[in-house]
Design goal:
By secondary structure, this protein is of the alpha/beta class. It is built from nine helices and ten strands. The protein folds into two domains: 175 residues, Rossmann fold; 77 residues, no CATH class.
């Protein structure tokens, strides 16, 4: 099930498979992600959602299949090379430098885009472009007023905002988000949703999320995975109406918050 009005894909995967021994965590997946779209991946626990994101980001190599960013084959590239090409990623567990300031966290992320990114002390203060990218990222994630605060002193929700800011400092075309609302209070979730809504105006967002109210209100396209395979892809209305999706969720139990589409 697909949307015939879907725009040209910015990311395309064909026959993507990841095996761990006899287990196929991702099994022969074909998907296109449209440029400028918000695309959610949902499914029961163990469906292969995070493994798929790990394959897209380069954190895991595929067993078979291909990943194309526009017309470029990026299947075998490591995470740093995919980041330099425009694929940014956040994790289920916040991935920041807790002993550094918010500014320093985003600075290091922005500097990672440079060919000499590991030369941390080479006249770094003279890089006006890196400073501009850092300040822009802090403003986008609404932490510009907290730039000098040590990251470990931030609230949990602010740390998740900072991780998004670090990803934005790399100037991504695509943002992969693994459970962006996990562990947040209601107030933090509202702030994060407002942030993601603003980012969706200019970026392609691909996200995993267990909050079905958020998914169906926010995503333009939804892919449902079960047992490592794609069950359905369509608009929120199409997924809500799908008998196959209802049967799959009933068969696997209520593993998602508000799982009944």
């Amino acid at each position: 099930m697909t949307d015939p009005t879907m725009r040209d894909p910015i990311l395309s995967i064909k026959g993507l498979t990841k095996r761990f021994g006899a287990l196929a965590a991702v099994d022969d997946v074909f998907l296109d992600f449209a440029s400028g779209e918000t695309h959610a991946i949902i499914g029961p626990n163990g469906a292969g959602k995070t493994t798929l994101i790990n394959l897209l980001s380069g954190d895991l190599p595929p067993t078979t299949g291909t990943i194309h960013l526009l017309d470029r084959d990026v299947t075998a590239l490591a995470p740093d090379r995919k980041s330099q090409l425009g694929i940014g990623r956040t994790y289920q567990k916040t991935n920041i430098f807790p002993d550094e300031t918010c500014f320093q966290n985003c600075w290091l992320a922005a500097q990672s885009r440079l060919p000499s990114s590991m030369r941390f002390f080479r006249r770094a203060h003279r890089r006006a472009d890196i400073r501009a990218a850092t300040e822009r990222a802090l403003a986008l994630c609404n932490l510009d007023a907290r730039a000098d605060v040590i990251a470990g002193h931030l609230s949990y929700g602010e740390q998740r905002q900072l991780e998004i800011g670090m990803t934005l400092a790399t100037d991504p075309k695509i943002l992969l988000l693994d459970e962006p609302l996990a562990g947040m209070s209601a107030e933090e979730s509202v702030r994060t949703m407002a942030l993601l809504t603003s980012l969706a105006e200019n970026l392609t967002l691909i996200l995993i999320e267990h909050d079905m109210d958020m998914v169906f209100a926010f995503a333009q396209t939804i892919t449902v995975m079960v047992n490592g395979q794609v069950l359905e892809t369509g608009t929120p209305a199409q997924i809500r109406a799908s008998a196959a999706v209802r049967d799959a969720y009933l068969g696997h139990g209520p593993t998602e918050q508000g799982a009944t589409p």
